[in-house]
Specification:
Strand order of the largest sheet of chain B: 1-2-3
Largest sheet of chain B: 3 strands, antiparallel
Distance between the termini of chain B: 18 Å
Shape of chain B: globular
Strand content of chain B: 5-15%
Structural class of chain B: mainly alpha
Shape of chain A: globular
Order of helices and strands of chain B: HHHHHEEEHEEHHHHHHEEHHH
Strand content of chain A: 15-25%
Largest sheet of chain A: 6 strands, mixed
Structural class of chain A: alpha+beta
Oligomer: heterodimer
Chain lengths: ~475, ~425
């Protein structure tokens, strides 16, 4: 009988080996997959025990802080409710994290300086995260939200000199404090108008005539055109073989670039696009950040890339302007397949305002550890040199004319020169639904603010009448 | 050195482990290393010494390594449960004492365990009755879809834990009588036993199937049937028996998984633990998914004693951490390295058990020891395999480690029986 007994023991050996192999599988071989599984909330749960760092606005206003609960865990609270909803994001167990809370999670939880927190733990102190300071301006943000007046849209303003983002308003918004309950979260996820979406970085819209500023950059900086270059502004000129109309069917004769920009003449700029060609347009849009996720310190999943989106095999995909599906003439006037984020358009204005140098947009300025020392200094950095300073100043002069005597007069500020460009994208021609735009910067000779404003849908509205006044009010608040 | 002296020395590292374990938990919880862990270690050592004295008096020749191994396992269990919940640890310590009493009683009352053979049908009938108790209205209790426990007053009790011992005793006795009869008839070169000999064995198969449907306990069913097949194989030395048995079991399991909702759900949750529908469903795959997450969190070296994330605020993360998922907690805290060490300790125990079976002189003792140790090994396999997704997760305890009174007491009785067999075998061998 001993033979079978030893064989039965052999079988148990095999079974135990199986147990060891499977334990090895979960602890080592497939560990990363399990840790990245979205259903795995262990890391988030562990963070409930850490005192998360607070977040402050540029003027020192408290934007987010952690409160200790009875059971020794912490919960997040947002004193200004939904004022900076999508930019700030949230940090709760159920919905997880978003916005700045997500992007700076490592800093806010203090996980980035492992040794110091381990020492704190050994001393019996609680784990504590770093404080985050931002450039956000609550007063100007309030103005932006008041001005949007409940209309779906976006307002983003930044300092062209250093890229600091001061206003980032997206309507509809939400109150992050309500996300504490799982029910409210799932309701918000399905809410009409997608309030959780940050329209500044993840809203893709046809930019309309504001994109003529990009075409102008390419035209001037490539040396192919000068402010005095003359082209026909005739209505109904064929572009890519199809006649193109000017706004309101206006007829223009042989006009120069300044006039074409001031009056936003479609046929004039479409010809420029065709003459410059796809390659030149691709080169300049690339320098401005098109074709890549709009750069800012927000999580990648909350940012989209601007550019031409062609439909291939039933799927919309981003293509280079050199692709065959691109109608470069219509792209040059912000139509056809071109879609942009508001932040991307604000970057266009900022690059012109900052003498051709585009700064990387940044919301955070620095983080401070619990001992009061700077943990992370978020330094301004150059994104790219887009154009020569000469191109920038020539274009600034023309854009100043747009606000002084052209389509953008509603953005004019008293005693301060504003440079800008309006846009009115057609969303539904039969129902006369339009998307008004305004991009610009001020003061024109020494800019402190660059801005992009858009309203998703108006009935018969124009950039000059609907978006420009909002830009005016927000710039006024920021320049005070 | 005599067997008993070796045992005595073996108990020292086991007790030190308890001291170190409690010490580590105290450091984590309060950052103060008091002498309390020494006290707990001393009490633990004292209790083990009492068991040792019992063995010295009654079973001087019994295997010297079994008791220290059991002490290590029980010590690990106490420390981990203490770290999860102090109140439960106190209960568990009480059950540990009751288990030692049951151990002592078994050794004193069954001086000659072979008297058990005389009562084999009484024992078999009693065991079946025990198995059916949880379905009797009024005292039966349903937990997670399975009818495992009964409530008598304040005490909750899992009769299956004791029924398995009774059934093994019956099978050992029955197979000793019929083992030659089972293999004496051959047709077409295959061993085909007569119906009157194979009948009671088919009854056992039916019982295992009954457990699947009636008590809805896949884990216990696998343990019973696996133990039965091991004994049948050892008794007959014919591979055909376990092969056919496994086939029949698989057939039954397949049939019931398709027809009994509870079994089918478990299997589906096992195959797709991250399916959102199963994950959200009550009694779905949440537990197994969390078990895997906890193990991944542990990694190679573990998060350290007292570091496992079991509960945050009021929300439990690992359901049934002290019973079903205690292995996941151990992997989380001690990592792959600690888990392998624990498995090796079990393997040592299993090795001692089979050695006892090999050394035993008579068929009944051999079969009894084989059955008992196979059931213990399979219990480890069923629960650890469930937690690590080798097989569907079912609610059985990790012997000596998991929280659970019936399990601790029943396992101490098993160990007592093994030592009774061992003492007799080694004494006879010495002569």
């Amino acid at each position: 009988m001993n033979g079978p007994i030893i064989r039965v023991f052999g079988v148990t050996l095999v079974l135990f080996a199986l147990l060891a192999i499977f334990t090895l599988r979960w602890t080592v071989l497939e560990r990363n997959e399990l840790e990245d599984n979205p259903q795995n909330k262990r890391a988030l749960l562990a963070q409930q025990k850490i005192k998360r760092g607070s977040i402050y606005a540029g003027d020192g206003t408290l934007l987010a802080r952690s409160l200790r609960r009875r059971d020794d865990t912490y919960t997040r609270t947002y004193p200004l409710d939904g004022l900076f909803a999508q930019a700030l994001g949230y940090s709760y167990l159920n919905p997880g994290t978003a916005g700045l809370e997500r992007f700076y999670n490592g800093q806010l939880t203090g996980r980035t300086q492992g040794i110091e927190n381990t020492l704190r733990k050994l001393q019996g102190k609680r784990e504590e995260g770093n404080t985050l300071r931002t450039a956000l301006d609550p007063a100007a943000q309030r103005v932006a939200i008041e001005q949007l007046a409940g209309r779906a849209g976006a307002v983003v303003a930044l300092n062209p000199r250093d890229g600091r983002v001061e206003v980032m308003a997206s309507i509809p918004d939400y109150n992050p404090n309500s996300l504490r309950s799982a029910k409210a979260t799932s309701a918000l996820n399905q809410a009409p108008g997608a309030p959780l979406l940050n329209r500044n970085t993840a809203g893709l819209y046809p930019p309309g005539s504001t994109f003529k500023a990009v075409t102008a950059i390419a035209a001037l900086d490539s040396g192919r055109f000068t402010p005095d270059s003359v082209l026909s502004g005739k209505n109904g000129l064929p572009i890519s073989g199809v006649p193109l109309n000017n706004a309101g069917g206006e007829e223009y004769g042989e006009i120069d670039m300044g006039t074409a920009l001031t009056q936003s003449v479609n046929t004039w700029w479409a010809q420029v696009g065709e003459k410059l060609g796809k390659r030149t347009m691709q080169r300049y849009t690339e320098r401005l950040g098109f074709g890549r996720k709009v750069p800012v310190d927000l999580p990648p999943n909350e940012r989209l890339a601007s550019g031409d989106y062609c439909t291939r095999d039933g799927e919309r995909e981003l293509v280079k302007l050199t692709a065959s599906c691109v109608d470069i003439g219509r792209t040059a006037i912000g139509q056809d397949k071109l879609l942009t984020t508001p932040l991307q358009m604000a970057m266009v204005a900022a690059a012109i305002g900052n003498r051709g140098v585009l700064m990387h947009p940044l919301i955070g300025t620095r983080t401070i550890d619990p001992e009061g020392r700077t943990a992370l200094d978020i330094q301004p950095r150059t994104y790219s040199r887009v154009m020569s300073s000469r191109t920038a100043s020539e274009l600034t002069a023309m854009m100043t004319r747009v606000v002084q005597e052209g389509t953008g007069t509603a953005a004019a500020l008293e005693g301060i020169d504003v440079a800008g460009k309006t846009g009115t994208a057609e969303r539904n021609v039969e129902q006369n639904i339009t998307q008004p735009w305004f991009i610009g910067f001020a003061p024109a000779d020494n800019p402190q603010v660059a801005i992009a404003v858009t309203i998703e849908k108006t009935v018969g509205g124009f950039g000059g009448t609907d978006a420009a006044p909002i830009a005016k009010a927000v710039m006024e608040a920021l320049l005070q | 050195m005599s067997a008993r002296n070796r045992e005595l020395f073996g108990l020292i590292p086991a007790s030190l482990l308890v001291v170190a374990g409690f010490g580590a938990v105290f450091v984590q919880e309060s950052a103060i290393l008091g002498d309390l862990s020494l006290t707990y270690g001393a009490i633990f050592l004292g209790l083990c010494l009492l068991a040792h004295v019992v063995l010295r008096i009654r079973l001087p020749d019994a295997d010297p390594y079994v008791l220290p191994i059991v002490a290590v396992l029980a010590g690990v269990g106490l420390v981990v449960i203490y770290r999860l919940n102090e109140t439960l640890a106190r209960d568990q310590a009480t059950w540990f004492v009751i288990g030692l009493i049951a151990f002592t009683l078994t050794i004193f009352l069954l001086r000659d365990y072979r008297v058990l053979e005389r009562y084999r049908y009484v024992i078999a009938a009693g065991s079946i009755l025990l198995l059916l108790l949880p379905r009797i209205p009024g005292i039966g209790a349903q937990v997670n879809g399975a009818y495992l426990g009964i409530d008598i007053g304040p005490v909750s009790f899992q009769p299956a834990e004791f029924a398995k011992i009774g059934i093994i005793i019956f099978l050992a006795s029955y197979l000793r009588d019929t083992r030659s009869l089972l293999v004496d008839r051959k047709k077409f070169g295959i061993t085909i036993p007569r119906l009157k000999h194979i009948g009671p064995l088919l009854l056992v198969w039916g019982l295992a199937m009954l457990m699947l449907v009636f008590i809805r306990d896949l884990g216990s069913s696998v343990m019973f049937f696996g133990g039965f097949l091991a004994m049948l194989y050892v008794a007959t030395n014919r591979l055909i028996f376990p092969v056919v048995g496994l086939g029949l079991f698989a057939l039954g399991a397949w049939f019931f998984s398709a027809t009994v909702g509870h079994v089918g759900d478990r299997i589906e949750a096992w195959q797709n633990p991250f399916d959102p529908r199963l994950y959200e469903q009550v009694g779905g795959s949440y537990q197994i998914a969390q078990s895997l997450f906890a193990q991944a969190d542990g990694g190679m070296w573990g998060q350290g004693f007292g570091q496992a994330l079991v509960q945050v605020g009021d929300s439990p993360i690992l359901p049934a951490a002290q019973t079903d998922l205690i292995y996941a907690v151990i992997v989380n805290e001690l990592g792959l390295v600690g888990a392998i060490a624990l498995l090796l300790v079990y393997l040592l125990l299993v090795e001692r058990g089979f050695r006892i079976a090999v050394l035993a002189r008579d068929s009944f003792s051999k079969l009894l020891a084989t059955g008992l140790i196979t059931v213990v090994a399979l219990q480890v396999f069923v629960i650890v395999g469930g937690v690590t997704k080798v097989i569907p997760l079912t609610g059985v305890t990790l012997p000596f480690v998991s929280y659970g009174g019936s399990s601790i007491v029943a396992n101490f009785v098993i160990v007592a029986l093994l030592l009774l067999v061992s003492d007799r075998a080694r004494r006879e061998a010495r002569r």
